[in-house]
Amino acid sequence: MGSAIAKHLIHAGFTVYTNLDSRSPKAHQRVLGAGMINVPLKTLLSKSNWILSIVPPGEAFAFAQKLRTVLAGLALPCAFVDCNAVNPETVRRIGVLFRETPVGFIDARKDGIPPFTHTQNITVERRKGWNRRCGSLKLCECVGDSFLQHGRTGLKLKAVVVTLDADISQPALMSRLIQTVPEGIPKAYRFVAEMEGLAEFVGGGEADFFKGFARVFERVAGSLEGDGVDVETLRSGVEKALELQGTSK
Questions:
Q1: Rounded to the nearest 5°, which phi and psi values hold at 54?
Q2: Could you tell me where the DSSP H helices lie in the chain?
Q3: What's the CA gap between 7 and 34, in Å, rounded?
Q4: In terms of pLDDT, which residue wins out, 236 or 65?
Q5: Do the Cβ atoms of 37 and 17 come closer than 8 Å?
Q6: What pLDDT is stored for residue 249 in this prediction?
Q7: Arithmetic mean of pLDDT over the chain
Q8: What CA–CA distance (Å, rounded) separates 100 from 89?
Q9: φ, ψ dihedrals at 237, nearest 5°
Q10: Do residues 110 and 81 touch, judged by C-beta distance below 8 A?
Q11: What is the DSSP letter of 105?
Q12: For the whole model, what pTM was predicted?
């Protein structure tokens, strides 16, 4: 999402800086491909008018905290904009970090899929101030988006893990599996905290729905970093789907 939005901004004439400390080679490649400029964190803060935080939800507070610790003595940006799918309590904690600084805090959200083309519009809706209701509305809207996007990914990942040994009898679903499963494997770790945040926000018995998805993504992410058994099962499922569809990789 971050790279897609950066491409859109760069196409509109903005300069977009980022900091890639401790990021993977793939992240470096993605950033360079988008046209962003990798700079040290202090340089990023002193050169930028706006800081857009688009990170895995589980890293949102730590990222804001990291920026807050290096603000002293720098030419400061106008505002820190949190664009992540985090629950109202996390939004409140992030806002508190900037309360005693000249840096403004804006609670924002990304809506829908990344803007893949420059002809798509990025719409900004302003809601003055912040309170728990605003933060709740942000996450409430994210409940629908997350289910439509990440929930379907989780369902497909789980379906392949538990049914590979059975005959795949729905060829109409094969093209969706072929696209969704490979994309979902490397991103699974990002969705764990997002689903847990949604569970905390929703509460009650309904929270179990999102906790279940969190465990699916956690299992896939753990496999990717560990023994790789579940990941191999997923990839084998995609191979089987390709064979049934009569295509090649």
A1: -130, 90
A2: 2-11, 25-34, 41-47, 60-69, 88-97, 132-146, 152-163, 174-202, 207-225, 229-245
A3: 5
A4: 65
A5: yes
A6: 46
A7: 77
A8: 19
A9: -65, -40
A10: no
A11: E
A12: 0.65
Residues 6+ apart with CB under 8 A from 75: 45, 46
Q: What is the pLDDT of residue 65?
A: 93
Of 216, 211, 193, 207, residue with least CA distance to 57: 193
The pLDDT > 70 percentage for the chain reads 71
Q: What is the DSSP letter of 120?
A: S
Q: What are the tens digits of pLDDT across the range 118-152?
A: 544 555 555 554 444 455 555 555 554 544 455 55
Q: How confident is the model at residue 241 (pLDDT cuts 50, 70, 90)?
A: confident
**Which tokens hold the place of 190?**
């990002």
Residue type at 52 in one-letter notation: L
Q: Are 199 and 214 in contact (CB under 8 A)?
A: yes
Which of 23-27, 155-159, 217-221 is the least confident region?
Answer: 155-159
Dihedral class, residue 228 (left if φ above 0, else alpha if ψ from -120 to 50, else beta): left
The tokens describing 73, both together, are 């003595």
User: Burial level of 89, CB count in 10 A (0-12/13-18/19+)?
Assistant: middle
Q: Give the span between the Cα atoms of 94 and 67, in whole angstroms.
A: 11
What is the C-alpha to C-alpha distance for residues 46 and 40, in angstroms, rounded to an integer? 10
